[in-house]
Design goal:
With 353 residues, this protein is of the alpha/beta class. It is 42% helix and 18% strand. It has 13 helices and twelve strands. It has a ten-stranded mixed β-sheet, with helices on both faces. Strands 6-7 form a two-stranded antiparallel sheet. The longest helix is centred in the first third of the chain and has 19 residues.
């Protein structure tokens, strides 16, 4: 098979972790006989520095022409600490999601036996956790208008907006995943307070009638946040709106023991994007210490979701599991053994494959 990728390394540790993922992708393609081509492009702070735009037209054109996008991270202290900045790196991520029609962010949360003791939660609570969070990506507070501040600067406002069409497409996608798994779907909302959440619940209850074989439950976001810590095994597929999904998936990262272990896939109308959940971690940039496993696991999702190559995705996950068991890991999850560098971890996994 021919694989044509757009590679957007981005900011901070992005270039380092993307390099390791590419080593792994090349190893898989060599092993299975796939023909790999890829081109790189700028996004985020580095794109602002180059052309003044965090998601340049050239980058978007490359993404549209590609079969999949492998993406690193966005963010820079230069802009984080400058409230007067008119353009921010994160706007590039939002623009990419909007222009590519990436309405669904898929975040699997699974535990690795060799990392159970790294989680702040007790082993008996998290052992065997295997859930997927389906987060709506293009609506809600992050995109709602109007948005801004009053002339005197004393009042700020954001608007949460959702349409029936936006809710239907994400809920149906979530049901399709639940049908292939343990047949349970949890919708997370705040229907006792928010009008948008009441629309979410109404639409879900209508669609649920088409999927009678799937157990559907609706819970408030505060309950979901509590249950993720108390009983994460009770979840199979969770679907929710943009901001709730953003917060809950970061909370769920403690289940795995490290944010550096969480991959994600963003799926929609055009080219899908595969990226780690974590940010740009500028403090570690250039030090060869960042954990590349979330990015490597995102490459596994890419083979599965973008190219329907299940065996290729499995061999990557198996190699990651082998690296964990062998203690070939970076400092954030190293235990008794000495930590390995970002590049050494990438080399080991590629060689294992």
């Amino acid at each position: 098979m021919k694989l044509n990728l757009a590679v957007l390394a981005g900011d901070g540790i992005g270039p380092e972790i993307i390099l390791q993922a590419l080593k792994v992708v090349k190893a898989v393609c060599n092993k299975f006989g796939h023909e790999l081509t890829y081109r790189t492009a700028a996004i985020g702070a580095c794109a602002i520095d180059e052309v003044g735009n965090p998601y340049p037209d050239e980058t978007h054109e490359l993404c549209m022409k590609s079969d999949a996008v492998l993406f690193g991270a966005i963010g820079s202290p230069k802009y984080d600490n400058n409230p007067a900045a008119k353009v921010r790196p994160e706007q590039g991520l939002l623009a990419m999601r909007k222009k590519l029609g990436l309405f669904a962010n898929i975040r699997p949360i699974t535990t690795f036996e060799s990392l159970l003791q790294k989680s702040p939660l007790r082993k008996e609570i998290i052992e065997g956790v295997d859930l997927i969070c389906v987060r709506e990506l293009t609506g809600g507070l992050y995109f709602g208008r109007p948005q801004g501040r009053s002339e005197d600067g004393l009042t700020a406002y954001d608007t949460c907006v959702y349409t029936r069409e936006e809710i239907e497409r994400i809920v149906r996608l979530a049901y399709s995943y639940a049908a292939k798994r343990r047949k349970k779907l949890t919708i997370v909302d705040k229907a006792n307070v928010l009008a948008t959440s009441r629309l979410w619940r109404e639409v879900t209850q209508e669609i649920s009638k088409e999927f009678s074989e799937i157990e559907t439950e609706c819970i408030f976001v505060d309950n979901a946040a509590m249950r993720l810590i108390q009983n994460p095994l009770s979840f199979d597929v969770m679907v929710t709106e943009n901001m709730f999904g953003d917060i809950l998936t970061d909370e769920a990262s403690v289940i795995t023991g490290s944010l550096g272990m969480l991959p994600s896939a963003s799926i929609g109308l055009h080219t899908s994007v595969f990226e780690p959940v974590h940010g740009s971690y500028p403090q570690a940039a250039g030090k060869d210490i960042a954990n590349p496993l979330a990015t490597i696991l995102s490459a596994a999702l890419m083979f599965e979701y973008a190219f329907n190559l299940q065996e290729e995705g499995k061999i990557i996950r198996d190699a990651v599991s082998a690296s964990l068991k062998a203690g070939i890991v970076t400092e954030d999850i190293a235990q008794q053994s000495r930590p390995y560098s970002t590049s050494k971890v990438g080399d080991w996994i590629a060689n294992n494959i």
